[in-house]
Amino acid sequence: MSGTVATVCRSCAAGQAGFADRLRHAVASAGLALDVRDIDCMSGCSRPTTLAFRAPGKTAYLFGDIGDGDLPGILVFARLYLQSPDGNLADARPLGVLREKAIARIPG
Q1: d(CA 46, CA 91)
Q2: CA 19, CA 74: separation in Å to the nearest integer?
Q3: Domain regions of the chain by residue span
Q4: What is the rounded distance in angstroms from the CA atom of residue 58 to the CA atom of residue 77?
Q5: What DSSP state is assigned to residue 11?
Q6: What is the pLDDT of residues 71-90, one digit of tens each?
Q7: Bridge partners of 102?
Q8: What number is the average pLDDT over the span 50-56?
Q9: What predicted TM-score, i.e. pTM, was given to this entire model?
């Protein structure tokens, strides 16, 4: 594993409906070195379902309002994030609507 983790809130509706499992399957099918985890409440209740990406020494990201329709954008983001040495993206346009769902970017 690359040390890169995607964490899904399992308290949110999509989390309760197994979104983390669907994301794990999508990540595995795409051959991405990403550890998908789920955790109780990420305190993003005003923008459920929340999803965080983090890796040692990289900028971390928090997304909200995530659902199954976002899986393609999440995979695009994951590829770009894994390729970026510091976690910052030069151009967020390839993310489509996912870029509008970013809640926070936290420096690494």
Answers
A1: 27
A2: 12
A3: 5-106
A4: 14
A5: S
A6: 999 999 999 999 999 999 98
A7: 63
A8: 97
A9: 0.94
